[in-house]
Design goal:
The protein is an alpha/beta fold and 393 residues long. It contains ten helices and 18 strands. Bound molecules: alpha-L-sorbopyranose.
Length: 393
């Protein structure tokens, strides 16, 4: 039976637009879905860039007017893959027009915006509104959450999360909108630290209640980009530089509502670490450890009193593991793109009323509140205690 179409307009033409397109295309091929996702129109700012992206990504239509697209009756979903300074305006217009919304993370550039978006989503009872914290859709992390929820780790005491990238390692790596506070809201903190915050709160099933933070900006200006190529780009004149107005790195401790202690770090200058998204959770009865560099594996430790007690490396590729069974035989791993296919599947199931929408805007607002608390704590320099200079050795 032909499924009812779910016609999608995607706003954005960068990395996330590409991977979201792939997700909408592959979801119906590997999962039985209640609705048929149909990529319909790609929206960008620049006519030539948008036309090129639409052709390359095989979108039937393209536009440079997101307001006109949102007003169309033949569009059901607005997928927001734009810089953070446009999330609120686009999402509010889409919800007011009765559309379903998938918005990239972080939800907004401020708590104020995120609160308005959350209220609008709550008022739009016929619409689904989800924020794209895609790492929740990693089979290994979904398994970790099942183990924690089943009490296999016991009382949780420690959360240890690092998200390490290195695409800004070179001080002459070109400037990008992600380094402009007006566009991005914050730097490493909101871009990748937000993932660690959401993943930790989701795994534990409880919020962070306080933080003590410090941030650092190592490189305060970068050359203007002359050619747009992905996350990096090409700098024409190294002396033609733009200011960096966001954090390069962030470190903070956190307390969770249930008493666990968290230690978080995020940077885009960890030379050699391209996309090392890691989290370890220690409970009274056991631990889990995940590293995106080995994303199909989950390390599990359970206190059994057995002489062979130790961490075991679980290949999360079995048919009965979350999402894994839809793809390949056991042992044949998945990749980064599959998280977004799973995210599309969950979104479509929520639109059809089969499952609750998650992470919804209220969950994303909680992440936004932690982001703001981290920035406030770092600005107040709340944890810095200087070491008095001793006599020279
Ligand atoms: C850039 O740092 C980025 O694309 C993030 O924005 C994504 O959320 C992360 O998954 C990969 O890196």
């Amino acid at each position: 039976m032909a499924q009812k179409p779910l016609r999608i307009a995607l706003i954005g033409t960068g990395f996330m637009a590409r991977i979201h397109t792939q997700a909408w295309r592959t979801a119906p091929r590997f999962f039985a879905l209640p609705l048929d996702p149909q990529p319909t129109v790609l929206v960008g700012r620049d006519p030539a860039t948008t036309a090129h992206a639409a052709e390359e990504l095989d979108w039937p239509e393209h536009s440079t007017d997101w307001r006109e697209v949102i007003a169309r009756d033949d569009i059901d979903v607005i997928d927001i893959c734009t810089p953070g300074d446009t999330h609120a305006e686009i999402a509010l217009a889409a919800l007011a027009a009765g559309k379903h919304v998938l918005c990239e993370k972080p939800l907004a550039n401020s708590v104020g915006e995120a609160e308005i978006m959350t209220d609008a989503a709550a008022a739009a009872s016929g619409s689904v509104a989800v924020c794209g914290f895609s790492y929740r859709r990693t089979p290994a992390l979904a398994l970790a959450r099942e183990l924690i929820a089943a009490g296999r780790l016991g009382t949780i005491r420690h959360v240890r999360a690092q998200y390490l990238q290195d695409w800004l390692r070179d001080a002459d790596a070109p400037h990008t909108w992600r380094l402009d506070r007006e566009k991005a809201g914050s730097g490493t903190l909101g871009d990748i630290g937000a993932h660690s915050i959401d993943t930790a709160q989701w795994l534990l099933g409880e919020p962070i209640v306080d933080v003590s933070a410090t941030t650092q900006t190592f490189v305060t200006s970068r050359p203007r980009r002359s050619a747009v190529t992905g996350l990096g780009g090409v700098a024409a004149d190294l002396d033609d530089r733009l200011p960096v107005t966001v954090d390069d790195a962030v470190a903070f401790t956190a307390h969770f509502a249930g008493g666990a202690l968290g230690v978080f770090e995020a940077t885009r200058m960890a030379t050699g670490r391209r996309n090392a998204n890691r989290i370890e959770i220690n409970g009274e009865k056991g631990s889990i450890a995940f590293d995106f560099e080995r994303m199909n594996e989950l390390e599990v430790y359970e206190t059994t009193g057995d002489t062979a007690e130790g961490f075991r490396r679980v290949q999360v590729t079995e048919a009965d593991h979350p999402y894994a069974g839809a793809w390949w035989p056991a042992g044949h791993g998945l990749g980064y793109e599959h998280l977004f296919t799973h995210q599309a599947v969950e979104f479509i199931r929520a639109v059809a009323g089969e499952t609750p929408a998650s992470p919804d805007f209220a969950e994303a607002l909680q992440v936004q509140r932690v982001l703001a608390a981290v920035e406030s704590s770092a600005a107040n320099d709340s944890i810095r205690t200087r070491i008095p200079e001793g006599e020279p050795a």
